[in-house]
Design a protein that fits this description.
By secondary structure, the chain is α+β, with helices and mostly antiparallel strands. Helix content is 54%, strand content 16%.
């Protein structure tokens, strides 16, 4: 078929008009090349060549237009940046699409590790590829970063212009990348990252492709810089908000602490007592607040909005965990939490510990609330000191009167008579002394408790050394003794006590005190603790053994009782039974019938036991020897009362028909 040059021109215009592809134009060239030579064929080929040139220019303009639109769209994305990773992914996608590449990715510099890591990818499917980290001296990324210029390679595996890495080369093989183009991301002259495109076939990249990728890289650099500025601004705003919140909270806390301090101060100024302090702290801290003395006994308590609690009749004692925490609080000078929502704070005065403040709340205390609680403990100490001062003012001369009566020289007691009468003690009538040895700190605590129970009338009492001394009329000693026993019921340390015999003359008080001291020394030697004895039970032994120790008493019992003595730690229960039988026999003046009745034994059983005793303890029936044996048995029972517990049981009438 023959085409004229006019027809060829019309066909070319038609193809260009419908935006035919290069393949259609090439097909037209093949048809023209088969025409016979001539002017028309030459003219037609020339027209077709010009049309191909126009087609290429149109494609270049379209490509540049697409690149320009991508740059504009990226710039628009930067203006509404929210998620930096999302923006970087979009940039990588556009770079890959514009250049028609198989893979696109972006590596960002990590200043802490001084290397680059892959942050955004498009078209990559290898997990190892996405975990690539490249140093400044390795790979295309390191080359671009060092030289701060674009780099392209049509043969990545065989390119020797950069240092290879087995891990990176393996990742590239996983992706099948043969050609690569990378451009630097610059910010203030520093490389912040590298933008890459790659292909899985051999390809040469044009200058325009390098230029458009560099433009997208610059925009990625701007995005990274903006993101960092945005993060810094956000962090600064968050810090400013946190600082403002902290200042507001501190201001509120300071105001609350100031109000609490003002209320506590006003409370003390108007003469508030311990229940008032507990009630105010309980309302402010939202829990139960109790004041305890140094022994752990609650002396005042209040609960939240319910107000002050009525004191228990026998007193209420704090738990052991709180008592142990008080010791830690005294050591540190701060409050101590001993459970999740429980806290104590020691109250200390001039003479030492005065007690403590105990708090129970639903939730643990914050720092400011803990400070308010500690300030409440200080105010509690002031109230306790004022209370003690008032008590001392009421009993200002009681210690001097008591010391003068107990330690003063004879014949001078009359000068103390009028002063003693103020406390309900008539020294011209029968009197009794009570001495309790409980250690110096324990006696101070007992004296304060006794002040709460006895008040300022009915007895004279004070701590003398490591003992508490109570002087009362014989008729009033029982209430005083009951008060002391109540105080000792929850005493946490060892103690022993002696109630002296009644005396009629005040000049006999020093001697009565000395006898009580000897009895206490005897109890120490016998290791008897936790009881108060009448002097009559110890009067026989105190002069003989008050200066003896445990070893001396053990030697006396062994020497006197011989084979009958079971020893302090021995298991000779049979000998202990025989010793109890002999003691009852001697106590009843060698009357076998009365002794058997008191032990609920048959008379024949008693006689059999006495025969067994004769075999263990020779000569005990001798007049002089019997007295020593009798004293030794009583001393043994005094030291080891549990061995002779059956002797204290009520006597039963024995069945005389029962055989031994």
């Amino acid at each position: 078929m023959y085409f004229s040059s006019i027809e060829i021109g019309s066909e070319v215009v038609r193809l260009l008009h419908r935006d035919a592809g290069r393949r259609d134009l090439e097909a037209l060239r093949d048809r023209l090349s088969r025409l016979p030579d001539g002017a028309d064929r030459t003219r037609a080929l020339e027209i077709l060549s010009m049309s191909l040139t126009v087609k290429e220019r149109l494609e270049q303009h379209q490509q540049r237009e697409r690149g320009l639109m991508a740059v504009i769209e990226t710039a628009q994305d930067l203006t509404r940046i929210v998620d930096i990773d999302a923006v970087l992914r979009v940039i990588v996608q556009r770079a890959r699409t514009l250049l028609g590449c198989d893979v696109g990715y972006l590596s960002v510099y990590d200043p802490e590790r001084r290397d680059f890591y892959v942050r955004a990818t498009d078209g990559a499917f290898s997990e190892r590829f996405c975990r690539i980290r490249v140093g400044l001296d390795t790979g295309v990324c390191g080359y671009v970063a060092r030289h701060r210029s674009p780099y392209s390679s049509s043969d990545y595996p065989g390119d020797s212009r950069f240092n290879h890495s087995d891990f990176i080369d393996g990742a590239m093989r996983d992706e099948g990348i043969a050609s690569i183009l990378g451009v630097p991301l610059l910010s203030a002259g520093e490389v912040t990252g590298v933008l890459f495109v790659g292909d899985r076939y051999v390809r040469a990249y044009t200058a325009w492709e390098t230029s458009i990728l560099s433009t997208l890289g610059a925009q990625a650099s701007v995005a990274i810089g903006n993101a960092r500025l945005f993060e810094q601004a956000r962090d600064a705003l968050a810090r400013a908000g946190a600082t403002n919140e902290l200042l507001s909270r501190q201001t509120a806390d300071t105001r609350a602490a100031a109000e609490a301090h003002e209320q506590l101060t006003a409370l003390v100024a108007r003469g508030g007592d311990l229940p008032d302090v507990c009630a105010m702290l309980a309302r402010r801290l939202g829990g139960r607040v109790a004041v305890c003395d140094e022994g752990g006994r609650e002396i005042a308590a209040a609960r939240g909005e319910e107000g002050v609690e009525d004191p228990a009749e026998e007193g209420r004692w704090i738990e052991d965990a709180a008592y142990a925490a008080l010791a830690e609080s005294r050591r540190t000078g701060r409050s101590v939490a001993y459970r999740k929502s429980r806290r104590v704070c020691a109250v200390v005065g001039g003479e030492g510990p005065l007690g403590g403040l105990v708090l129970q709340t639903a939730e643990p205390l914050g720092e400011v609330a803990a400070r308010i609680f500690e300030r409440g403990a200080m105010v509690t100490g002031v109230v306790l000191l004022l209370k003690a001062q008032r008590a001392l003012s009421l009993m200002s001369d009681a210690p001097a009167v008591l010391h003068g009566l107990v330690h003063g020289p004879g014949g001078r007691s009359e000068r103390f008579a009028r002063q003693a009468e103020k406390y309900g003690v008539d020294i011209h009538r029968s009197m009794r002394l009570l001495v309790v040895r409980a250690g110096r700190d324990g006696c101070t605590h007992l004296r304060r408790q006794l002040m709460d129970r006895l008040g300022t009338s009915g007895a004279l009492f004070d701590d003398v050394g490591d003992s508490l001394v109570v002087l009362a009329s014989a008729a009033r000693m029982e209430p005083a003794l009951a008060a002391v026993r109540a105080c000792l019921r929850h005493h946490r340390g060892p103690f022993s006590g002696v109630v002296g015999e009644a005396i009629d003359r005040p000049d006999d008080l020093p001697e009565s005190f000395e006898r009580a001291e000897r009895c206490l020394d005897l109890l120490d030697a016998l290791d008897r603790r936790g009881e108060i004895f009448d002097e009559g039970r110890l009067a026989l032994y105190a002069p003989l053994f008050s200066r003896a120790d445990a070893a001396a008493i053990e030697g006396f019992l062994t020497a006197t009782l011989g084979g009958l003595y079971a020893g302090s730690n021995a298991r000779g229960e049979r000998r202990a039974v025989l010793a109890g039988t002999l003691l009852s026999y001697l106590d009843h003046g060698y009357n076998a019938a009365e002794a058997a009745r008191s032990l609920s034994l048959h008379i024949n059983t008693l006689r059999q036991r006495l025969e067994a005793i004769d075999a263990l303890l020779e000569g005990w029936r001798d007049a002089g020897r019997a007295l020593e044996v009798h004293m030794a048995l009583r001393l043994w029972r005094l030291r080891d009362p549990q061995r002779f517990a059956a002797l204290d049981a009520p006597a039963a009438v024995p069945d005389q028909r029962r055989q031994p």
